[in-house]
Amino acid sequence: MMTGLIILLLLVFFLPFTVKTVERNLEIFIFIMGVTATLISGTFSRPLLLQALKDPIKITIAVVIAGLFFKVFKDQIEAAIHMMLNKLSFSIFIAVTIVLLGLLSSIITAIIAALILVLIIDSLPLDRKEMVRFAVIGCFSIGLGAALTPIGEPLSTITISKLQGDFFLLFRLIALYVVPGIIFLSIYAAIIIKPAKIIKVRRNEDKERLEDILGRAIKIYFFVMGLTFLGTGFEPLIEAYLIHLSPYILYWINIISAVLDNATLAAAEISPSMEIESIKAVLLGLLVSGGMLLPGNIPNIISAGKLYITSREWARFGIPLGFGMLIIYFFTILVENVILG
């Protein structure tokens, strides 16, 4: 069983970047891999099926509503963004957007923050390369910020529940890491993202049809459903090999949250008996890794689906950025532990 799950995990990691058919049909691929994982591990059950059918409902509804909202008010939204651009320089506008969405995501949820990010990106004068960069950096920021409260994303909800903490527990625990990370991302975005000299027409600049909106929502539904199956299917592997390891080893192993639901990993790895520094290490590893690949976070899925970003495009920029942040956070934690003794 374990051998089968390891092989399946490697397939989930590498096939989207090596097989174009898989890349073009990533949602169905993740769904098939998720069901396969539950069959291999023997975790498929009626309650799991019901849970997998239920989990994507809220995000799917949010995506449909946002799509309709954008379809109706696209011109007004673009006008408001252009008005702000006339008052702020392009770089400052980019930086402010990254900071605000990152911090507000803990209040308005990661889903809504991602939908706002898409609306902004779609209204800016960006060529494709800059659009992808903005989306990836924005989703890193949202993924970090949403963890500060239990309403931001499932990972924070599960973590606070397991630790039996209050509403501001995670804010007290990781805000000193998360907020500087968001500020760094905003400055980085302001430096590297430049407006296009010649605007290239993107597919989503055309007036969207209702069929396009519904089609994208259906894809996201099956994508999230597949992630639910994946998380449960790999639980035996996690319990057998991961949960007893040093938190510093888990920090790096949690790179697998780039393709698995980080809330599931948090539920398996975090325990009230763990040292505070260990909990920090595990959480930061999960949060940063979630931005590296397209399936790693709900904001990634929403942004890529709306902006038609491929797995390869996301990984080309997301992996180097994620590894850089992981290294910085890792040495920050080590230094802090040495100073605190």
TrEMBL record:
Stretches that traverse the bilayer: 28-49, 93-120, 132-149, 169-193, 213-234, 240-260, 281-302, 314-335
InterPro entries recorded: DUF1646
Protein name: DUF1646 domain-containing protein
Statement: the UniProt record of this protein carries the keyword Flavoprotein: no
Domain of life: Bacteria
Coiled-coil regions listed: none
The entry's keywords: Membrane, Transmembrane, Transmembrane helix
